[in-house]
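Hey, resending since the last one bounced:
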Amino acid sequence: MLRVVAGPKRVRRLPDGWEPLVPRRFGLRPLSPVIGAEIEGVDLREPLDDETHAELHRALLEWKVLFFRDQHVTGAQHRAFAARWGELEIHPFLPAGETPEVVRFAKGPDDRGYENVWHSDVSWRQIPSLGSVLRAVEAPPVGGDTLFADMACAYDNLPGDVRDRIDGLVAVHDFTRTFGQGISEPDELARMQERYPAVEHPVVRTHPETGRKLLYVNRVFTSHIVGMDADESDALLELLCEQAQVPEYQCRFKWARDSIAFWDNRAVQHYAASDYYPNVRVMERATIIGDKPY
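The structure tokens again:
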């Protein structure tokens, strides 16, 4: 079975030639050396001016996920903040919150959490997302954290022979592996598969703004690698998906009511810890349409 040889972890936050951001419009506190930063001094109820928006975008590219505390925003303000980065998607499988562009995840005694798998959102779309803005409407007293993994670090730390092997490979992503399980009627499933057919994306994508190479396969939506037999594809995908699990590439965020996370879905995977049952956890998410991976 393929395995990654353990060794020193090269944890690089910035693309070559970039200088660290020194923000002027807000405070920034890193959560780990390579990924995740809490932002202080920005009120997301108010429209962002151009300079603050530009600095936040630069911080997002550098830290990959930004966190905001005590943001008493409405659903409309949540949507408006996310829309500052682009057009928002309407998810065809998840329940909506106050508006179609904001989906709602409500878990509690009657509905256990199930998102505890490392993944990248909507990689089954031809045009996956740029990023997501997730807001805690109600958080459990303990548990329910979300973990984020830097997939550029995950790529950088693969052995050279593995990086050479996966260069130019393409994988198939398919919603049927997850959302399809909730569609009981064969005709309805066939209609949705026709509307959202399986797509092919590079195993290693290039970030369109930083130029960094990133692993772009995940356990939830990636079914197989094109041109490989099933056993070889499964073994290689297992090796690559394991890279999200390395603690040196991660940060972990403890939610509280009115906390917000904004992540670059092109650069990270995330994992929602399902350890809070039977407590209630209610989240709402707006997702920004991105670009075709290359």
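The first helix runs from residue 50 to 63.

Sorry for the duplicate.
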